[in-house]
Amino acid sequence: MAKTIFEQTGGTYTMQGDYCLPNLTLPIEEEHPIGVWAQRRLRYLKQHHKIFYYNLLTSGKLRSHLADVEEEAQSLFLRLVKEYAEREGVTEQLKAENPMEWVRRMNNIRNQVIGIVINELIYQ
InterPro entries given for it (predicted)? Predict the structure, then answer.
């Protein structure tokens, strides 16, 4: 019997009952740190873009994609928090004079920016 294309490229099979199943393995990926933004992106891909998720997973590019999203989201988040704080007048002086007001306003800014980052990067 002639070898299949899979066998010609070095693949092997395992007998499971009456069936020959190919021995498939995923490509080895580099370890990248996965933070909160990447975890949100991973959850979104698994639930709403399954084909894209499985394409990234089987090609060995999922971890690098998540690392890129994490890096981009984190830099966008920090930049927007800084811009919003400057625009709304949340300064170190306010922090020294009225710490509770500073915390309230910074939490408001952070929540706004989280929504922006999620809509712009995570859910795309």
Answer: TnpV (IPR026989)
What is the CB neighbour count within 10 angstroms for residue 95? 14
Q: Which residues contact 77 (CB under 8 A, 6 or more apart)?
A: 37, 113, 114, 117
- Give the residue from 61, 57, 55 showing the smallest Cα distance to 32: 61
User: What are the φ and ψ backbone dihedral angles of 21, each rounded to 5 degrees?
Assistant: -105, 135
Mean pLDDT in runs of 10 for the chain (124 residues)?
67 83 75 89 97 92 94 97 96 95 97 97 92
pTM here is 0.77
Within a 10 A sphere around the Cβ of 118, how many other Cβ atoms?
Answer: 17
Q: How far apart are CA 72 and CA 79, in angstroms?
A: 11
Domain boundaries defined on the chain: 29-122
